[in-house]
Amino acid sequence: MANERLQKVMAEAGVASRRKSETLITTGHVKVNGQTIKILGTKVDDDDEIEVDGIPLQREKLVYLLFYKPRGVISSVKDEKNRKTVMSYFPDVRQRIYPVGRLDYDTSGILLMTNDGALANKLTHPKYKFEKTYVAKVEGIPTNDQLEKLRHGVRIDKKLTAPAKTRVMSSDLDKKTAIVEITIHEGRNHQVKKMFEKIDHPVIKLKREKYGFLTLDGLQSGEWRSLKLNEITRLTQR
């Protein structure tokens, strides 16, 4: 992009986080058009040549993809156990994309894929409180009192969860199961499953239906689409 701050361009290119990129600049590791730059806020254009420790910066076109992750797929670029990862669904995407946050192996649903490091950091940072809505099939039928505990926060891994929005969508008295919608803005490990375990209603099946204002409308499991310009703008201007 034209006329962008140097540290932002470095972060988007995957050099390091925005803060680490700032440190690299102020400590003299970065050159622009052959000159060492130590001033934060320096702006660069698309045709400027940037080097970090003598290595030219490879700038890619930014891409933003909305993916319907199936169950049984790892939300990672690589997997040490050689299990199927989300990357297998993007063989023709030339950019070095990666998932924003994670969905568990056995959880399906909406997942953003991008090479915009600055946006990825922003969307996963707790202070921005970016809402994610899940639909869970759980054992038993939660009472309103139990759901009220989730609405106020429960203690998992020795830390209280932020208040959640939750409601029972349907219940099956014969099978003794319920479908519950829950909206959270945190992204702790196995958080939704642990929250339901805390109220004695273990999750049988879990799907992330919404990511902020984004939904899975028009997509089948395993499919993806590029974000529209207005969607990218809404995400980046939060």
From TrEMBL:
Alphabetized PROSITE patterns for the sequence: PSI_RSU, S4
Keyword presence, Isomerase: yes
Enzyme Commission numbers on file: 5.4.99.-
Gene Ontology CC, one term: cytosol
Pfam families per the UniProt record, alphabetical: PseudoU_synth_2 (PF00849), S4 (PF01479)
GO terms classed as biological process: enzyme-directed rRNA pseudouridine synthesis
Domain RNA-binding S4: residue ranges: 4-61
The entry's keywords: Isomerase, RNA-binding
Enzyme class at the top of the EC tree: isomerase
GO molecular function ontology, one term from the record: rRNA pseudouridine synthase activity
CDD domains: PseudoU_synth_RsuA_like, S4
Family annotation (SUPFAM superfamilies): Alpha-L RNA-binding motif, Pseudouridine synthase
Homology family: Belongs to the pseudouridine synthase RsuA family.
This protein's name: Pseudouridine synthase
Organism for this UniProt entry: Pediococcus ethanolidurans
